[in-house]
Amino acid sequence: MKSVFMLLSFVCLFGFIFPLAGESVQPGKNIVLIPMYGGVEKTEAQLALDKKFIKEITAATGSREKGSQEFVKIGWKMFLVERNPATAMMRFNQAWLLDPDNPDVLWGFGSVSGAMGKTADSVKFLRQAAEKLGDNAMVLTDLGFSLTIYANEPENAETAQTVISEAISCFERAEKIKPEYEPLYSNWAVTLFSNKDYAGAWDKIGKAEALGGKTVNPMFVKDLESKMPRPAR
Predict the structure, then answer these.
(1) pTM to 2 decimals?
(2) DSSP string spanning 188-202?
(3) Do 161 and 76 share a structural domain?
(4) pLDDT (tens digit, 9 = 90+) per residue, 160-179?
(5) How many helices, marked H, and strands, marked E, lie in the chain?
(6) Could you tell me the residue range of the domain that residue 44 belongs to?
(7) Is 201 within the bounds of a domain?
(8) DSSP code for 63
């Protein structure tokens, strides 16, 4: 199997071919930047490019499933390291094209959609990922945070409390699975803050700090202090 970085050479080659296979089906709409290509019916030329892409990557990795996993890794690198959500979405779409049943692709779709400001899509795909991946504390943490953002959008005010309750449930499940996962507590604190549970938020900040505190945002701590002084330990 070729490494992720060796496969990046394929990405560079196909970067001028494969993304163009999905460009501008509708004015101003680029389907490579939409999960699952937006469900748009592709042209014969685009389908031919898809077929070529699948053949080349399958030959390079040994199977469509392995190729999909490699492109998931590339997608995360583009998202988390390169800070390039657009390219990340392209790679997750390519991973989906290789293996539509890969649950890690759903996770990628959900995370990148959130970064692109498409919160409803983020929640939808992260819910699907959480269902398929089962006891995965990291997915549940991401879902809990995405639900919090969704609940705090003005147009979702009527269902906000129900959505916040779902977010808290996600964090509670994640804690049972992986209590040493620090981002769980820093994200949970934000959810509790949005629900005006400042004492609870301080409790989660304390747990995150006990695990290193690398994911605790100092600006958030200042906001929390403005609502309630840090409790004495």
Answers:
(1) 0.86
(2) HHHHHHHTT-HHHHH
(3) no
(4) 999 999 999 999 999 999 99
(5) 11, 0
(6) 1-101
(7) yes
(8) S
